[in-house]
Specification:
The chain is mainly alpha-helical. The protein is 60% helix and 6% strand. The chain has two domains: 1-141, no CATH class; 144-249, no CATH class. A hairpin with a 2-residue loop joins strand 2 and strand 3 (72-77).
């Protein structure tokens, strides 16, 4: 069974519309991840429910389902779907207050809404395999120092590229030594197998291959030649670098 966004306004949409808030909330606890996710989208669209409770439940489950959008099939965690449904809802609600077309950006909405600070904190302390769109948004936030040890764990133990570049942008005095140790000792031995893991690998390879540090460049080159990064929607960026630099695989 697959979650089909096109049918949100058809069979499933009609079913959701026929349910009361109480009935729909009950479905948000269903064991079936498809039904549960549809119910949570429905509750969010109605402006009901506690988003932190809804999201943290999916973060803890860390379940993945197939999603149809137009003619494309993608695999996403239910937490990613719930997060993005809430983001769209908040964006639409915010934009409705700007009739003069001077709309705020989605990033500014996230920064200004206090609830997103709590959501982002919940995300960085979860072990859920979230997509790059969510992680990119989360790590645009300037987290307080109390979250630093967790972000370091995400970067150097869980290999989350957005966490790595977040730390790099902080310009902390200890970052360079952590970076060198990570790429010299750990990175060469890592395997990047899932779609999201390959996305992180591509970001690291771009960074290494563009580095002026010859040691880091060569580490990236050796990893590139293992071809773990292939068959990903962003591998085109690496192909461009390969062509530009005349790299032979």
């Amino acid at each position: 069974m697959q979650l089909d966004y096109n049918n949100m306004g058809n069979e499933f949409g009609e079913l959701i519309d026929s349910l009361s808030n109480k009935e729909l909330l009950k479905f948000t606890e269903h064991k079936n991840p498809i039904l549960r996710t549809f119910a949570k989208i429905g509750i969010i669209n109605r402006g009901k429910g506690n988003i932190l409770v809804l999201l943290e439940d999916e973060l803890s489950k860390n379940e993945t389902i197939e999603v149809w959008e137009a003619d494309l099939v993608d695999r996403q965690t239910t937490a990613s779907i719930v997060y993005e449904a809430y983001l769209i809802k908040k964006s639409l609600d915010t934009l409705s207050h700007f009739p003069n077309l001077k709309y705020p950006s989605m990033d500014s909405i996230i920064v200004s809404e206090k609830v997103f600070e709590k959501i982002d904190s919940a995300i960085i302390y979860s072990n859920c395999d979230l997509n790059y769109r969510i992680l990119n948004r989360v790590f645009k936030r300037q987290f307080e120092g109390r979250h630093l040890s967790r972000i370091e764990k995400l970067a150097f133990e869980m290999n989350i590229s957005q966490a790595f570049f977040h730390l790099k942008d902080r310009n902390d005095v200890f970052f360079t030594s952590l970076e060198q140790d990570y790429f010299k000792r750990k990175f060469p031995r890592l395997s990047f197998e899932t779609y999201n893991e390959k996305g992180h690998l591509i970001q690291y390879l771009i960074y290494l291959l563009e580095s002026q540090d010859k040691i880091l460049y060569n580490i990236g080159l050796r990893k590139l030649r293992k071809k773990e990064w292939q068959n990903h929607e962003f591998d085109i960026v690496l192909h461009e670098i390969i062509d530009e630099k005349g790299i032979k695989l």
